[in-house]
Write the structure tokens for this entry.
Amino acid sequence: MEHVADNPWVALAYLIAGVCFILALRGLSSPESSRRGNRYGMIGMAIAVVTTLVTHVPTVPVLAVGEVAGYDYAALMQRVDTLAVFEILAAIGIGAVIGVVTARRIAMTAMPQLVAAFHSLVGLAAVLVAIAAFLNPVAFGIADIVTPLIGAPFAAIHGVSRVEMILGVAIGAITFSGSVIAFLKLNGNMGGAPIMLPMRHAINLGVALMILWFSFSFWLTQSPLDFWIVVALSFAIGFLLIIPIGGADMPVVVSMLNSYSGWAAAAMGFTLHNTAMIITGALVGSSGAILSYIMCRAMNRSFISVIAGGFGAEAGPSGGGGAAIDRPWKRGSAEDAAFLMSQAEQVIIVPGYGMAVAQAQHALREMADKLKEHGVRVKYAIHPVAGRMPGHMNVLLAEANVPYDEVFELEDVNSEFSQTDVAFVIGANDVTNPAAKTDKTSPIYGMPVLDVEKAKTVLFIKRSMGGVGYAGVDNEVFYRDNTMMLLADAKKMVEEIVKSLD
Amino acid sequence: MSFIAILSIFVLACFVGYFVVWSVTPALHTPLMAVTNAISSVIIVGALIAAAASGSPSAKWLGLLGVVLASINIFGGFAVTQRMLAMYKKKERPAVAKH
């Protein structure tokens, strides 16, 4: 059977779908064009789905019996299988309802979990498609019927397709199980702390080698047993890879899984000779890879060290936390903070994951509005790894109606702290730690940080003095003369400041 | 299509992806992940082929399940992206309409 996608009109339709996906990502270069970009994405998807539906109408053979010109005849005809058509449309409908309802109801703070959950679905879908292609290769046009000298005829899958198929199923399975773990960690069903298995590097390496070996064997023999072993081992290595990675490294993990879901789609695109899938796979794969790179750079850590996991597990809270009690620090009240900020010319707000946990973004925007009424200029400074996924803080601020032209990236705003009266740190810690610039022994040395300590006054909201940031290191900023610690729940503290500003 | 033709499309698309993604503003990185998620569900094409094919009932049911999963992602992914993008607003100019 020929590849249906090799029909020029069908191929053209898939190509247009692929171009629409490129335009969808292109639109994200600015918020104004982004909504149009998203529509391109939807159009592209509609083209791809409709093209597939009309070129793959399910049929059933029927025996037509009749009499023509005195001769009886019997012929096998193909009739549209209405039941199967209905089943397919119902499957799309079920997915549509679940998807739209979830997307409408989800809280913005839960976005990292949602993205992880969606990644797991792409991974699982890729696995299912690869298994279906393995079970029914003729339908996918990737096999020839071979009649051996002894035994029954069988479908011999093309060698290239075997490689593509086993790649697709392996990457899909890793994406699925890895995303499930990422989801459980982000959703709080599983502790955020890294779980360290003994000998984990050896185990992972062993499993990876076994996957390679059985994939090779599958390529040679098309043995079903090899296929299923690869599926099982790939699920296992997905779990093993993500389990030792801690909460604050999640931005890298989520981007990496995003990348994998793309490569899985690309591998299946190769199997089906489908340009829409190949273009999409390449786009998504490189997108996730670039995001992982940006996140790693923002932590000054190599991708390998993040994937190896265990960051922050050795240091433990006792190391830095003990020192915190001995050193003098200043405590402020909501009234002090309100007074200082209302007198300021410029305030820069530095949000972090703590803001998301406390759901303080709306109160924060109210505070900023009050400050603006006092004639204060308010800006927001976002560190690339603040939060649990790339761009997490920006979405939360946008949800609270903070105009995006008041929100700045690290490199655009960092030089301004020295001319700023108040730096207001809410729920961030490691990303403000000056030790990253000075202390070569610090685990976060070399990470680009926000220079909050250069502001005339630093207001630092924190739950208590005991806890340390994710990296397990003490923050010099707490003990500086120009720092005032506001110890409270972030949301409550901001609400009190808002009251005091009236 | 020959393997090399497909590989060429793939390699060129990787380059397109590289340049397009670097031009995405960091403020939109979360919507970027949501929309890439939605479009990677183009894998639904494979699931639809499996679901429509005769010859293997188990492959058909796996295909249908794949269609459900990918549809969740497509509709959910685009809807949540749209919801996020609708929130990004510019500063309201001191509006005359207020007074």
Summary: The radius of gyration of chain B is 20 Å. Chain B touches chain A through 82 residues (CB under 8 Å).
